[in-house]
Amino acid sequence: MVQQNKNYIELKNINKSFEKFQASKDINFGIEKGRLVALLGPSGSGKTTILRMIAGLENADSGEIVIDGKVVNDIPASQRRVGFVFQNYALFRYKTVYDNIAFGLKVNHWNKADIKKRVSELINLVNLNGLEKRYPNQLSGGQRQRVAFARALAPNPELLLLDEPFAAIDAKVRQELRSWLREMINKVGITSIFVTHDQDEAIEVADEIIITNKGRVEQIGSPREIYNTPRTAFVAEFMGHPTKINNISSFWGFTGLDASYHAVIRPENVSISKKTDKIRYEVTAEEGVVERVLFRGKELEIWVRIHGILLQGTRRAEEEPIREGEQVKVFIYRAYVYKEDGEVQIVVNQTIRAEESVII
Fold this sequence. Notes:
Blueprint: E1 7-18, E2 21-32, E3 36-40, H1 47-55, E4 62-67, E5 70-71, E6 82-85, H2 97-107, H3 112-125, H4 141-153, E7 159-163, H5 171-188, E8 191-196, H6 199-205, E9 208-213, E10 216-221, H7 223-228, H8 233-238, E11 243-245, E12 262-265, E13 270-274, E14 286-295, E15 299-306, E16 309-316, E17 327-332, E18 334-338, E19 345-348, H9 350-359
Helix pairs in contact: 2-3, 2-4, 3-4
């Protein structure tokens, strides 16, 4: 019995160049039906090019794009059954909310009764009741994004693509729309891919994350896998708010690592305590000097210099405050270490490992 491929979308050995710039280099991945996937990476990493090739707005130089078991390289965008939400909404300024959503249905020659029924369904879905006769300039950024989302869904596409869908929206509304998008995708059940450079957005919204860098795929996995177990140096340095260290062996607890190892340390793995605090690993904590403190509501972000390196850590806001210029105790719980072009390893401080071995 032949096992069927469960991937709804597949990119096989995709390459794409713009003159001398190679935007996509041997791209390979598959996405299961109904998944919400984030293409995450810095500017220029190739994520939007991938999205546009799937949509049919760009042509791959080589390789195959497969949707629902069919190679679509030579199929025009209008026939791929793909909905696309652009970063700037791309709404028609002189059309109402109703007419913007109905536009694609009119182009496809739906009859008036079916158009009215479909638009009404989508107005309810995206919570824009009562705004049907308004124009885009009479809407908030969040409302315009909802219109763009409804318009993309109107023709019942099999695949939804979103290019930086929250980039033009202020921070508070963006947070609300993340939850809204997750809820809408679950309701509709449509396979969806969205591009973002915001790792918090990808972690919060996506079922799966594809990390891109310099036209290549660095790692694919769930948000938890990507964050907790980075496989490459790029992913380790990109996720979270890390500090890169070239002499990790100078820190207590990591002396077994020679100079060929580089390391990344994240704030959540750095304990910064007052000199008067009683801490668990008192004997092996090192001294540092605080250079910067920022209040973040629930916690303080603290930058401390130790061994000539500026590390970031956190401290709960309800604890006794730490101030700039203060000498503090620093303990690093774990680090992500790697050699040039090597895989990333998670190395736990030797003090913790020794304690665990005694308990065992």
